[in-house]
Automatic annotation (TrEMBL):
Gene3D superfamilies: NAD(P)-binding Rossmann-like Domain. Residues 109-131 are annotated as: Disordered. Pfam families: Epimerase (PF01370). Residues 5-215 form the NAD-dependent epimerase/dehydratase domain. InterPro entries: Epimerase_deHydtase (IPR001509), NAD(P)-bd_dom_sf (IPR036291). This is Nucleoside-diphosphate-sugar epimerase. It comes from the Bacteria.
């Protein structure tokens, strides 16, 4: 069946991978964005507009109907705009797939988080509460049977705009002793952008799919130590990781999340269970392959599109050197 889909966003990273995957499947793809971030992929039917403008949403709805809406830009915009968009599209779309985030889960508790773990409440700032509000808005309008929610942790791979893997790769290429964060055995659960896109398209085509899915790598398969070592290996084995305890990094004022990318601070929090997504067909390639392909993309001149929502990644070389010197003096 030739699917008709609408991608809200569609020009950057995951959105672009979804669009290109759909075009490869021979689907009819409409995109909706402001035309600011990057050009649309050739072959789509672009509709220009702002998600925060009611008249633009009405004009978009007139371009329907669609079998499915894939929303890759919701957590970046106000929950009221997500609600207004879902209200405008509900009469002309079969189902709504929302890319949310694993940050939607509230802290506390024990064991891996599953799709039924407690979420942030509505209200409040930050990625988690905004994603929770977006999920509530869409579910309220499309109903449980027509809503699919995807919750990735970190999405990595060629084209990544946030620059997290890019920073580790370039740092490893620079060589020498390299500061590495926390416990090398800490479980990380990134998903490759191509695997997340393939899963989203699979669910878009499945009329019976509904509910929330954690779109993450299997628990315990990938570690921060493995990620750092993969970066060292593909860039020519120039760097030597020096692992520093989280408490030491905090004492030196290292900012979690950005200065040493993919280090969340603290003990790293609880893992997220991907069991439901894996049962529904998510296949996660090994992280080593994502690292290798991202390096190949950078080496061939690939450059991320600057993203206003993402802070610059990476620690200043002088700050890193000072911490490494302090660590060496302690040993
Ligand atoms: N990367 C990660 O590690 C990660 C982790 C968890 C969840 N996620 C979520 O996964 C999704 C990834 O999507 P993505 O990679 O394609 O990136 P994205 O940065 O969310 O894409 C933004 C897209 O939406 C459009 N857009 C932004 N504001 C708009 C507005 N007001 N009206 C209309 N269009 C607008 C942009 O185009 P214009 O600027 O031209 O309008 C662009 O096409 C995001 O929702 C993100 O929050 C990502």
């Amino acid at each position: 069946m030739r699917m008709r889909i609408l991608v809200l966003g569609g020009t950057w990273f995951l959105g672009r991978a979804v669009v290109e995957g759909a075009l490869r499947r021979g689907w009819e793809v409409t995109t909706f964005n402001r035309g600011r971030s990057a050009a649309d992929s050739p072959g789509v039917r672009p509709v220009r507009g702002d998600r925060a403008t009611a008249a633009d949403l009405r004009r978009l709805a007139e371009e329907g109907p669609w079998d499915a809406v894939l929303d890759t830009s919701a957590p970046g915009i106000a929950p009221e705009a997500v609600r207004a968009g879902a209200a405008a599209l509900e009469p002309v779309a079969g189902r709504y797939l929302l890319v949310s985030s694993a940050e939607v889960y509230r802290g506390g508790g024990a064991g891996p988080r599953t799709e039924s773990s407690a979420l942030h409440g509505d209200g409040g700032d930050g990625a988690g509460p905004r994603a929770a509000a977006a999920e509530g808005a869409v579910g309220g309008l499309f109903g449980a049977a027509r809503t699919v929610v995807l919750r990735p942790w970190a999405v990595l791979g060629p084209g990544e705009y946030a620059g997290r893997l890019e920073w580790w790769l370039r740092r490893a290429r620079r060589g020498g002793p390299m500061l590495a964060p926390g416990d090398p055995g800490r479980c990380v659960q990134p998903v490759d952008v191509r695997d997340a896109a393939a899963f989203a398209l699979r669910l878009a085509a499945d009329g019976g799919a509904a509910g929330a899915y954690n779109v993450v790598a299997p628990i315990g398969r990938e570690t921060m130590g493995g990620l750092v070592q993969d970066c060292v290996t593909v860039t020519g084995r120039r760097a030597v990781p020096r692992w520093a305890d989280g408490a030491v990094l905090r004492a030196h004022g290292v900012r979690p999340g950005t200065e040493l990318p993919l280090w969340p601070g603290g003990d790293g929090g609880r893992p997220v269970s991907p069991a439901a997504a894996h049962r529904a067909g998510l296949v996660c390639r090994p992280l080593a392959e994502t690292v290798m392909d991202t390096w190949a993309w950078l080496e061939s001149g690939g450059r991320p599109v600057p993203h206003p929502r993402h802070a610059r990644q990476g620690i200043a070389p002088e700050k890193e050197a000072a911490i490494l010197a302090a660590l060496a003096a302690e040993r």
